[in-house]
Inverse folding.
């Protein structure tokens, strides 16, 4: 049968009419399937593209938040350093105040002692004057 069809083909007598209709129907089915596949893939692409845009926007927001947080972290670190320096200064000043209070206390004690001696000297002088008046 194949030889006959080859001979018909050589002679131009080959008839594909029935075969062509079947092939055309098969091709139409395949074309429709491919069109549906293209439509599905196009929809997937649009969905993926939309998700990509959404993720890009979200990524940008997250980058801005991260940048802001890094700035805040640097400020916090700077504030912590300042806090430590101030705490050290407070300790130093308290120590200085305590030393001044001790010095002040010593000065007050010395002042009282001098005043007491001065009173005693006055009392002695008054006694001496009274004694001289009696004599």
């Amino acid at each position: 049968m194949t030889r006959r069809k080859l001979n018909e083909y050589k002679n131009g007598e080959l008839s594909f009419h029935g075969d062509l209709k079947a092939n055309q129907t098969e091709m139409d089915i395949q074309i429709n399937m491919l069109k549906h596949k293209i439509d599905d893939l196009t929809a997937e692409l649009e969905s993926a593209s939309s998700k990509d845009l959404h993720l890009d926007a979200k990524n940008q927001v997250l980058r801005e938040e991260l940048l802001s947080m890094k700035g805040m972290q640097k400020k916090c670190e700077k504030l912590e350093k300042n806090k430590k320096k101030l705490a050290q200064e407070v300790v130093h000043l308290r120590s200085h105040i305590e030393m001044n209070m001790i010095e002040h206390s010593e000065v007050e004690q010395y002042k009282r002692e001098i005043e007491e001696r001065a009173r005693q000297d006055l009392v002695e002088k008054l006694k001496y004057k009274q004694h001289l008046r009696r004599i």
